[in-house]
């Protein structure tokens, strides 16, 4: 697609817990909207709400946000926006799932119970003043090893669904003020609610997550980079006192250059410095470098999943949907 907005694209991150009665039907309509606006990205739709990250020209992303917010169900949705030089996705995927973030906390409804918000500037002052509180990272290992808040408590989990299994490790913080955080805020909605359910009575969450903190509080005291779920893999957050906290998986030298192992059967997410990336051809080990299925390394360490016969209109007929929308408008 030719860029018509002064070489400015946008990538947005968002979520909204709000009931969607017919998620399959909504999925088709929403997919069509994204296609009409030339957007790419990943969107998850469930009966509990909407979760997505998409990229496109600034003009078309703005139109998308305006359209979504015009739906009363999503009037309060908050978009985290960043300017980027090009699309951060290669394709568009809009899927219906049981939850908008995979967890083992499906019974929790954040619209009824969740931790109180702490705004980015508030958290910045709390850290600066060394307030007595616990800042809890609810993300996975590969994410917090790349970057985290100074003095944050991290958990040894490979997936967010493992969070409840760590509740016993957090018992020592009962009675203290706890502020949870994640990338964009969505995991904290359920994580903070679960802590409240388990008897933690002073639980808060960073509103908008790390991304909003970087946009509004300059990312101060966030150490390292923030892992993101698009082709950039990792982004700078801290504009005040940045530091590298991760090490190259191969040579153990400081590096915050995130890579997916070029061996698709491994595909681990780890920091690999540029020199080791070239030497290992994007692989994390000699074994992976010599693997017969190893993918060609282009220097980025990002690999789009294979989608044989990819068709953005798969799953519904565009013409029938347009006809249905037209009929609804005239009745």
TrEMBL record:
It holds the Pfam family UPF0176_N. Residues 299-331 are annotated as: Disordered. Residues 321-331 have a biased composition (Basic and acidic residues). One of its GO terms (molecular function) is oxidoreductase activity, acting on paired donors, with incorporation or reduction of molecular oxygen. It catalyses: uridine(34) in tRNA + AH2 + O2 = 5-hydroxyuridine(34) in tRNA + A + H2O. It comes from the Bacteria. The keyword tRNA processing applies. Catalyzes oxygen-dependent 5-hydroxyuridine (ho5U) modification at position 34 in tRNAs. This is tRNA uridine(34) hydroxylase. It comes from Marivirga atlantica.
């Amino acid at each position: 697609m030719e860029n018509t907005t002064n070489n400015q694209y946008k990538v947005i991150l968002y979520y909204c817990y709000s009931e969607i009665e017919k998620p399959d039907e909504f999925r088709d309509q929403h997919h069509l909207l994204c296609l009409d606006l030339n957007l790419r990205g990943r969107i998850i739709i469930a009966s509990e709400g909407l979760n997505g990250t998409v990229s496109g020209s600034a003009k078309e992303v703005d139109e998308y946000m305006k359209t979504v917010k015009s739906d009363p169900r999503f009037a309060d949705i908050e978009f985290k926006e960043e300017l980027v030089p090009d699309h951060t996705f290669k394709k568009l995927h809009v899927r219906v799932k049981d939850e908008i973030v995979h967890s083992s906390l499906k019974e929790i409804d954040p619209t009824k119970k969740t931790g109180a918000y702490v705004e980015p500037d508030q958290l910045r002052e709390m850290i600066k003043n060394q307030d007595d509180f616990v800042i809890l990272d609810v993300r996975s290992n590969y994410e917090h090893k790349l970057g985290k808040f100074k003095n944050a408590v991290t958990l040894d989990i490979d997936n967010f669904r493992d969070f409840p299994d760590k509740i016993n490790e957090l018992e020592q913080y009962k009675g203290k003020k706890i502020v949870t955080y994640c990338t964009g805020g969505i995991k904290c909605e359920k994580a903070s609610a679960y802590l409240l359910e388990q008897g933690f009575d002073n639980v808060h969450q960073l509103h908008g997550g790390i991304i909003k903190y970087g946009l509004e509080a300059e990312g101060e005291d966030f150490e390292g980079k923030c892992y993101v779920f698009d082709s950039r893999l990792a982004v700078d957050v801290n504009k005040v006192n940045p530091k590298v906290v991760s090490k190259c998986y191969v040579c153990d030298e400081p590096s915050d250059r995130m890579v997916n192992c070029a061996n698709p059967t491994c595909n681990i997410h780890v920091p690999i410095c540029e020199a080791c990336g070239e030497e290992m051809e994007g692989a994390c080990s000699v074994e992976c470098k010599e693997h017969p299925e190893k993918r060609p390394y282009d220097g980025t360490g990002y690999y789009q999943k294979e989608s044989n016969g990819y068709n953005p209109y798969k799953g519904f007929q565009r013409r029938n949907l347009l006809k249905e929308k037209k009929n609804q408008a005239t009745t």
